[in-house]
Amino acid sequence: MEPLILNHPLALHKLSFIRDRKTCGLLFRQLVEELGLILAVESTRTLATESVAVETPLERTQGRRLLPLDPVLVPVLRAGLGLLPAFLQLMPTAKVGHLGLYRDHDTLVPVPYYRNFPPLLEERTVFVLDPMLATGGSASEAVRQLKAAGAKKLSLVAVIASPEGMKRMAEDHPDVQVVVAALDRELNEKGYILPGLGDAGDRIFGTN
Predict the structure, then answer these.
(1) Tens digit of pLDDT for each residue in 36-70?
(2) Quick one: which of 199, 202, 201, 173 has its CA closest to 188?
(3) How far apart are CA 163 and CA 184, in angstroms?
(4) Is the separation of the CB atoms in 201 and 83 below 8 Å?
(5) Model-level pTM?
(6) Exposure check for the chain: N or C terminus, fewer CB within 10 A?
(7) In terms of C-beta distances under 8 Å and separation of at least 24 residues, what long-range contacts does 13-21 make, across chains too?
(8) Where do the domains of the chain lie, and which CATH numbers do they carry?
């Protein structure tokens, strides 16, 4: 499945401030949420709808509504929590799962430590939220865990990605839609995205 890379003026504008090392933590969190709204709109374009009858003040007409079974949002802890408020703003009834993964800084291998998913994953659309698609290891493992739990229709949503991360997802999960605000140049020797924006989790939660 072809990835979707945003080319929206507002996304580019906000991303330039998110990248800036001088942007303070409060503004960084706000901008990630604002960019998250654009990502949420773009990544939900394929949600299924059904026809419903609507009584306007003037006449009866037909409208479209989402299917009754709510989508699922799964932020990859902890940085994925930065995108969650924006998605919940647009889909307030969505179910929220959590998946804890951390990257071993020596091996770059993702290590799971927590998992809690809503029921009926096999019948729901699932959005995996993780601001950074770097090596692709954590994203691939997150999707693998969700597929093992029954999920069939998945999208991965990130702020920035590397070519290496995109390649890994295409190889491991060609059926998953990847939506990112920007595709960056490369990874450095430590597995960080260049030019990047630093460590998203540290900047969101002030632990840098």
Answers:
(1) 999 999 999 999 999 999 999 999 999 999 999 99
(2) 199
(3) 7
(4) no
(5) 0.92
(6) C
(7) 14/38, 15/159, 15/160, 15/181, 15/182, 18/159, 18/197, 19/195, 19/196, 19/197, 21/198
(8) 4-45+70-205 (3.40.50.2020)
